[in-house]
Design goal:
It contains 13 helices and six strands. With 291 residues, it is an alpha/beta fold. Helix 11 packs across helix 12.
């Protein structure tokens, strides 16, 4: 399977713009995909924001396994990282995000009060990888569609400020990837969840990765969705399962079309609420790296 890499020129520009805007904000909202919270964290963000207060927002929580999302929230709490999960289909989680920002800004607010400065709206900036849901979050805070959204990377092109009930002023930034992924599996997870343009990977490679993960961690999900015997998930190889799913959907032997359909249905939540990494897996990876 070929390694996936993507770092066009506008990514370097977005990093530079973020660095320039940081002095204007109080807090950074780092948006990650709740289905792959670790794989979707840009390591460059920590380097750029350094000691700036920040909140980790697990986006697309409505598509992720809720039990595993709870595990991630507990994991981040153990790491002293302020983290909240957000369902982009409703605005119910907005106050949780604001409350989280107030928590990380508690010391700064106390200093402002001691200086006799009047309270003002929190100023924040959203950062994250492409297609993580930044525009969706901005629109929820605005209460209307002020920025374009889409289930593909690279939709947000320009910066804009949005105000929310005199509590928050939020700056949206384009998505930022980093120059090189640490391992091929990280690229596969990002491709699977739609963070990378489809022209930069082979869809059947990512479909095979998805099938292998699902048959191991969500047995029966494929069989239920595509109406075949569950035993076949164990008996058939991933390529054979792609061909079976392709045939079941009436695509005959067009396995590339079947692969693309499978990935789209996974991203849309049609196979259920799925997560593709856990804190336990991350701990094991760290242990292997250290040893």
């Amino acid at each position: 399977m070929a390694n996936i890499q993507w770092y066009p020129g506008h990514m370097a520009k977005a990093k530079r713009e973020l660095t320039e805007k940081l002095p204007l904000v109080d807090v950074v909202f780092e948006l990650v995909d709740a289905r792959i919270p670790n794989a979707s964290r840009n390591p460059d963000v920590s380097e750029i924001i350094q000691n700036k207060p920040h909140v980790l927002v697990l986006m697309k929580a409505d598509l992720a396994n809720p039990g595993i999302t709870d595990q991630w929230l507990k994991y981040y709490q153990s790491q002293n990282i302020e983290a909240v999960a957000f369902n982009g289909k409703s605005a119910k989680g907005i106050q949780k995000i604001i409350d989280a920002a107030k928590n990380v800004l508690e010391d700064d607010s106390a200093k402002r009060e001691a200086k006799g400065l009047k309270p003002r709206a929190i100023r924040g900036v959203t950062v994250g990888i492409p297609n993580v849901g930044k525009s969706t979050l901005i629109n929820r805070f605005a209460g209307k569609n002020v920025t374009q959204t889409g289930d593909r990377p690279g939709v947000t092109k320009a910066q804009q400020w949005v105000k929310y009930k005199k509590q928050l002023e939020l700056l949206d930034m384009p998505g930022i990837l980093w120059p090189k992924f640490e391992g091929h599996e990280q690229g596969e997870k990002l491709a699977l969840t739609g963070a990378i343009k489809h022209t930069l990977y082979y869809v059947d490679d990512i479909a095979i990765y998805a099938i292998n993960y699902l048959t191991k961690n969500y047995p029966g999900a494929l069989a239920t969705r595509y109406h075949f015997d569950k035993e076949l998930e164990e008996e058939l190889t991933a390529p054979d399962l792609i061909l079976l799913i392709t045939e079941k959907r009436g695509f005959f032997d067009d396995y590339e079309r079947g692969s693309e359909m499978l990935l789209n249905e996974i991203r849309d939540g049609k196979l259920g609420r799925l997560s593709f990494e856990t804190p336990k897996e991350l701990s094991l990876e760290n242990e292997e790296t250290n040893n």
